[in-house]
Amino acid sequence: MAYQSYPVQAQPQPGADQPLPPRIRPGFGLRGPSREKHVLTTEDLGALAFPVGDDGVLIGVDPQQQPAVIGLFRPSSYEVVLVGGMWTAQIIALRAAATGARVAVETGRPQAWAPMAQAAGGGQPCVTVHQVGRLGAQGASVASPVLVVRDLGARPARSRLSATPWQTTLTLLPYLGPNASRVLNAADLVGLQRISPQESDLVGRLLSLGSAEVSALPTLGDNITLWATRMRRQYVMTNPGEAEAQVLGAPRRMD
Asked: Which runs of E-coded beta strand occur in the chain?
């Protein structure tokens, strides 16, 4: 095969009136301006600090008006029970979806969840609504955590889903039913909104609440929740943002 030759123009040599081309260091591009190095002494290192708090889903503010956050998604399965209203469960679902999680709702009242599901993803199916018993495996992972909301009344059947890492189940109880002891004892975190004095006494025994907390539960406002673990208690006030209020309305305990 014959190759066609092209004339090669001679490159001009830099002279006294022509600056040298910038020297390029392989892999680093052009040499940047010189700067003095920043050096800290060992004593100065203690002054470096970053205001990093807990990560998770913002659910409201505590009595000191500080942000209250739930770390919903973990490298193990996590069980949350909310004895309260659907409004609070939907706020949590919306805010979980806003963090990038997928939300799957198993419910006997899909018409009550449909507006929230449609508004949550802006056209993307980040919140899906399923009939009772029709919820399949969700394939949760560290890159795609899942919140499963079970809105099945006061006597929810046992879930058919296997417990998996990065999948959290939120079981919504409108009030305490006959199997409340089983559901609450299996929970890692319990949220309690306004309940009757009789229910408050039962919850107090199951969760070892103090007398002040037992007395306060029947008087809580619509947007107040007492979140409890075996070791810690925290009152949280939840107020909707403007967009959330347009979709869900004002806080309410009963639906």
From this structure: 24-25, 29-30, 57-61, 67-70, 78-83, 102-107, 127-130, 146-151, 167-173, 189-192, 224-228, 233-237
